[in-house]
């Protein structure tokens, strides 16, 4: 059993590192594309209601009057920056 673990463990660690690196690359690319789409929306003057894209946990925190918790949750779930998260939450607060 120890021999099997001795062989498998380094392989699993290497696989984890490869997958994690690839996921980070995808996250960065997705964030880059989101910024581009946001710029295009702003430039064209298209109005876009993204409140439906906000996770349920964030909506619950907003409805409970927990603005800071909602911002933290939004940032954690989406990877958004503080300004973007604050703007989204402020928009949700206005609409509720």
Automatic annotation (TrEMBL):
Q: What is this protein called?
A: Ribosomal protein L7/L12 C-terminal domain-containing protein
Q: At the top level of its lineage, which domain of life is listed?
A: Bacteria
TM ranges: 6-23
**Alphabetic keyword roster:** Membrane, Transmembrane, Transmembrane helix
The UniProt entry, under InterPro entries, shows: Ribosomal_bL12_C/ClpS-like (IPR014719)
């Amino acid at each position: 059993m120890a021999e099997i673990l001795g062989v498998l463990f380094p392989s699993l660690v290497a696989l984890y590192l490869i997958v994690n690196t690839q996921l980070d690359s995808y996250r960065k690319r997705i964030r880059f594309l989101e910024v581009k789409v946001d710029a295009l929306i702003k430039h064209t003057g298209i109005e876009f209601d993204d409140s439906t894209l906000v996770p349920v946990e964030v909506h619950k925190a907003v409805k409970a009057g927990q603005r800071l918790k909602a911002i933290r949750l939004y940032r954690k779930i989406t990877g958004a920056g503080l300004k973007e998260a604050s703007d989204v939450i402020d928009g949700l607060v206005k609409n509720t």
